[in-house]
Design a protein that fits this description.
The chain is mainly beta and 67 residues long. It has one helix and five strands; from the N terminus they run βββαββ. A hairpin with a 4-residue loop joins β2 and β3. The longest helix has 7 residues. The relative contact order is 0.27.
Amino acid sequence: MQGTVATFDEESHSGTVLLDDGTRLEFPADAFAASGLRLLRLGQRVRLDRAPDGSISALAMITMPAG
């Protein structure tokens, strides 16, 4: 699943992502930590990994496939 970063708090490392259908999902600091990223910017597209309970467990950068 993919979404767009809507909010990101640099101090708490938590935020929200908007899915393409407009659904807003919150992600916790643990999901950001699992990403290995150092920063997110508003409007950035990310891939979302979800836990069995539906919460976001990790974020990942979307990269261009090798051509």
